[in-house]
TrEMBL record:
Keywords: Repeat. GO terms for molecular function: RNA binding. This is Putative pentatricopeptide repeat-containing protein, mitochondrial. It comes from Noccaea caerulescens. InterPro entries: PPR_At4g14850-like_plant, PPR_rpt, TPR-like_helical_dom_sf. The keyword Transcription regulation does not apply.
Amino acid sequence: RSVVTWNSMLCGFSQNGNSLEAINLFDYMYSNSLETNEVTFLGVIQACSSIGSLEKGKWVHHKMILSGVNDLYTETALIDM
């Protein structure tokens, strides 16, 4: 599976009211060292925002910084969180 496939699943969960599934999928991707990109982080940050999970959102933001993602859309999503 490619990052596009994983992102499609993650964003699909996030945008259709399954935020916990999106977060769990991100955890799976991260723990298995699967490729992530700005779309991955955008989807999971939106999921964290949707359920009010500030602590998880902070953790995701930290991982985003470590991975070198610097994207305007993702940074804007952090403001909503």
